[in-house]
Request: fold
Amino acid sequence: MLDEPSIGLHQRDNQRLISTLMQMRDVGNTVVVVEHDEDTIRAAAHVIDFGPGAGVQGRHVVFSGPPVALEKSRKSLTGAYLSGRQHIPAQLSPRAHQHRLVLKGAEQNNLEKLNVYFPLGALTAVTGVSGAGKSTLVNDLLCPALDFHTGSSDGGNTPTNYEALLGVQHIDRIINIDQRPIGRTPRSNPVTYIKVFDHIRKFFADLPEARLRGYGPERFSFNVKGDRCAGREGDGVKKILMHFLADVYVRC
Reply:
């Protein structure tokens, strides 16, 4: 049983995944896949479609049968899109952009003298197959170059792995959001990061019982040993390791 195995894959890799699933079936396994991917749906021997909508509008089996019959179903929203009766219109003419960044002669790893421009004032996605150079282009070349030219970096040598960066005058600063914790510990969350939790801890410390016992705001931090729940170490959940399965979290 697989839950959305195509998530995170490039479309080119879909057929490799489907081929692997077919091989698993051909050697005698029953393969159950939860998916939204069109290629996977069409490759299935049998489709069970839930709906008619999402959330509280779901929970009903609106179709059960082969993919070809799903396309003809008038009850299935999935079938309507598979058959083409419904579609999402694409914006054929891209929006005009007044300014853009131009990175010339980018050269690192498998990038060789690459010239690329990034429109400003728009949401831009850099896509490609695994190993194509997406992270190298954005994280290793574009961001350091912008840091240097906007004065956001803490000094250092001039980047030399590109020829020119044009359009920097339209950039005030850059904010690089990566996968590192937003605070000093992995327990950091939006409430602690924007300092709202400081007011919550102070509120608890100002309560009559807390003042009677001499508790300060630090008493109500989930990062301080002795004050937080010792069994869960302030996480609020207990992590149970499951061999060969996803870990289970039980609320405290």
Notes: Helices lie at 11-26, 38-43, 67-72, 77-83, 134-150, 190-193, 196-205, 208-213.
